[in-house]
Design a protein that fits this description.
single chain; Immunoglobulin-like; 3 domains; 9-stranded mixed β-sheet; 26 strands
Amino acid sequence: MPKPSTPIPTNPRMAEVHTFGHPSAPAPRTGWAQQGRGKVSTPGVPHPSTPLPYPPTALSLAQGTGSDLIATWTAPATDSTHATATGYNLRFSRAGIGSWATVSQASSPYDLSGLAAGTAFDVQVQSTNAAGVSTWSATSTLTTASAGPYAPNAPAIAGVAPPPDGTASKLTVTWTAPATDGTHGDATGYNLRYSPSGAGAWTTVTGVISPYAITGLSGAAAMDVEVQGTNAAASPGAWSAATTATTWGATVAPGNWVPATSQTHGASVAPNGGAQLVAVAAPTAVSGAALAWSTSNTAVPTSGLISAGADGQTNGWGQWFNAPASAGTYYLWLLAQGIGGVTTGALATGPITVT
């Protein structure tokens, strides 16, 4: 007779052991398998979708106003592993010290102000975006401007020309005040120097103002002229670029017939019906002469010339002619001419009122 089988008792704890292992074992790991690859990823950990940017490029420094430094840089390139930079940080330190002060959300160009004068500074920049920050750029180093006062920039010479006063020994020099910037102050005074052209044998005149007349020169002499600005700085500013001009080669003076200061338009010139002049070589030979009406007493006339002929006096020239056809204020120019009709000397009279 078969022995009856002993029933196996149902034990929930035993069932748990059979299913999960020992009751004290940790709970099984759960997760999601990637389809077709059999790998499990941990839930709740996001994967970055924006790569970090490269650091900025072409960082450069320039001196700004006072002791400021101006930093400029170029946005970095992007590729498959580096995204676009959406912002920048900047840091600076005294050169070689590495004690950095950081400026967040800087933009190019950036003005670093309040720096110590005459001091070298290291500057770096880094890019930022949603993923974080790049590495710092290469270091750029520059020294801030020294403490003022600063010497002026060089003035700009506006003109050098012989004056229309009948002489052959002068040049009139005009110039404009130089611009100021972070390393150059206002000019409060000026020096001028001149030399025979190309010789570099300078004669310097200090404390001049524009316009300034150089006197005592030879006739028909080409001269180089330069101007520099001065102020409270220990040294003056740089000399301007040289401008070259030539004195007149002949002298001019009024003759015996001198027009009155009041004339009637279109009528014969009062009181003698014309004018005379005396032109003397100094040293350029005088081969002719001319007269001209002009509303300017500074620009030598080149058109509307009235040819004058020799009048029988020593170095004398003259011509009959009329007053201008229109009313106004005019100047009568007396001109000495060399070969080819080139003006070699000039004299402009005072104002003549034409009614």
